[in-house]
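Lecture 7 notes: from sequence to structure.

We start with a single chain of 350 residues. Read the sequence below before looking at the structure.
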Amino acid sequence: MAENQLPIFFRHRFLWHILFWIVIFLTYWLMYAGYMEYYYVEFMWGLTLLPARIIAAYTFIYLILPFAIDKKRFITFGILTLIHSFLYGFFIWATYHYANLFPEMVDLSKMPLFDVPHILNKLASNYGIPAIAAALVIFKKWYSDEQNNKKLVEEKMAAELNFLKSQVHPHFLFNTLNNLYALTLIKSDKTPDIVLKLSDLLDYMIYKSNDEFVPLTKELEIIQGYIELERMRYNERLDLQYEIKGNAEGYEIAPLILLPFIENCFKHGASNDRSKPGIRILLEIEPAYLKLSAVNTIPQEKKNDESQSEGIGLNNVKRRLELIYPNRHKLNIIQEEKTFSVELKIFSEK
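Now the structure, written as tokens:
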């Protein structure tokens, strides 16, 4: 991630550290000075104690805290924290003892240096500083880990999606070339038109469908072109109904997300039916959703090892729907004795 794309609390690190110590200094100064309005006294003590507080905070977050958050050695962390806290309290008390800035108020030099009650008192009143610094470090690490994990998941999903999209082209090309081959065998006059339409489809699929989303109107043109290809192939033998309800203008959709379901109707239904296959395709465009209903008849005699619900096409598009429209689509596939039906709803973002 580029420097200017990082959250602001990850940038200008030195300035954030300066701001942290300014806030700490002002907080302790105003909090203790407010008791008896000794603002000058507490200001001078705050400046005197600042080096001890800075040393304690940085030794804790850089030398001791890593035992917990990086090395997961919690017992060692606990022992070192106890030692650090006592030494910190002693360091603060020793600063009071030797600096003795205002002996006319209280002559601290006459008190014992190793005075446990005073050490514990200074520990209790000052250890919040390393604790706050540690909390900020933990939050920063948690946020950074979350962002890295999110980025890894997004990169994995993008790689998987690119792989799935790369499978669409050869799969579709394979099926369409089979159709073209069948027409060339019978020397059909429709062959040149099919080659031209196939060229238009491949131009869209290879060069114009690499965007994450494309206009729905363009996607419907591709579907229309594919259906016309199949009409040429089956002619009067196919009972086909194709209808669009609603206005597609202004909507976008993931490229080639609908075509596999329509292609499946022809590949597994009409191509295996030697009588009069039937296909019903309905697209409903509403502000809240896009709905595709596709039903095809199943040949009475099918190979035992063939299942319309299997194969690269449908498995591919199912996974693409999960990646592109998580929690925003509903897919029902029903295979009955004589019909195979697909109902897909893609909901608009709320």
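Strands lie at 214-215, 239-245, 252-253, 278-285, 289-297, 329-335, 339-347. Keep this in mind for problem set 3.
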